[in-house]
Write a structure and sequence with these properties.
Order of helices and strands: HHHHHHHHHHH
CATH topology: MetI-like fold
Oligomer: single chain
Strand content: under 5%
CATH class: Mainly Alpha
Structural class: mainly alpha
CATH superfamily: MetI-like
Largest sheet: none
Distance between the termini: 17 Å
């Protein structure tokens, strides 16, 4: 077994010893399974309105009850899982595809390019995340595709700064200097030596940002700036149920629980990955 494989095994042992991390992994895996298979297993169509069963409380026919239009809440939550994953991971991955190269290039080369890019990132970071997203939606209009764009813009500055800081540390190490002395191109050094060493903190950040992206997407839909009715998006479902919170609390309860459990699972998974990739914890094994 090579040193890298041994370190990977130790990392998994650290991860498995963290019960919250395992719980987060289970929740995340279940979320992906629901997103893949949930719509085909849903007992009802998410958009069909049944006026004979309006605002029914949970019962054997409708496990989570029905909403104000008679739509089955359980079926809508199953369909909404796919939308939430698409918005969250689409926005996070899109932000990573822009933020990571920016951080690598600015951290490696520095100079005027670093100054200009980082000042732009500072401007974006000056806005609270939800206000920045609302501003982007105000310019582009409501809709899930525009929510993805808002999440991409929201994620770029944090990832760019994280990768830049890591690149500044790594480029001063001996193995990078040796690669430069051997005549390796800058592109090769960035791809082969620096990017793999910034992967660990980026992976943890992407996992945590996915949970934040779901919160932002749900908040925008709750405000009427995200998913367009009758799209079964969890934030929009939560907005539909706010008028019935005291009389028929199940209409808002179950979408709220779906958001809470999903974000909690992703955050716990991110903390577990952080422990798994921490070399100080691996040395204790």
């Amino acid at each position: 077994m090579t040193n890298n494989e041994a370190e990977l095994v130790k990392g998994f042992k650290v991860f498995l010893r963290r019960r919250p991390a395992v719980i987060g992994l289970v929740i995340t895996v279940l979320l992906f399974l629901v997103a893949i298979f949930g719509p085909s297993l849903a007992p009802y169509s998410p958009a069909v309105q049944d006026y004979d069963h309006i605002l029914e409380r949970p019962n054997p026919l409708h496990w989570m009850g029905t909403d104000n239009l008679g739509r089955d809440i359980f079926s809508r939550i199953l369909h909404g899982a796919r939308l939430s994953l698409f918005v969250a991971f689409g926005g996070v991955i899109g932000g990573a595809l822009i933020g990571i190269p920016l951080g690598l290039v600015t951290g490696y080369y520095g100079g005027w390019l670093d100054v200009i890019v980082m000042r732009v990132m500072d401007v974006l970071l000056a806005f609270p995340g939800i206000l920045l997203a609302i501003g982007i939606i105000a310019l582009l209009g409501p809709g899930l595709s525009n929510v993805v764009v808002a999440i991409i813009v929201y994620g770029i500055p944090i990832l760019a700064r994280l990768v830049r800081a890591s690149t500044l540390q790594i480029k001063a190490r001996d193995f990078v200097e040796a690669a430069k002395a051997s005549g390796s191109s800058d592109l090769y050094i960035l791809w082969r030596h620096i990017l793999p060493n910034v992967f660990a903190p980026v992976l943890v950040m992407l996992t945590i940002r996915a949970g934040q992206a779901i919160l932002i997407a749900s908040a925008l839909s709750f405000l009427g700036l995200g998913a367009v009715p009758p799209t079964p998006e969890w934030g929009a479902m939560l907005a539909d149920g706010r008028s019935y919170i005291t009389t028929y609390p199940h209409v808002a309860l179950f979408p709220g629980l779906a958001i809470f459990i999903t974000v909690l699972g992703l955050n716990l998974l991110g903390d577990g990955l952080n422990d798994m990739l921490d070399p100080r914890l691996r040395r204790t094994l």
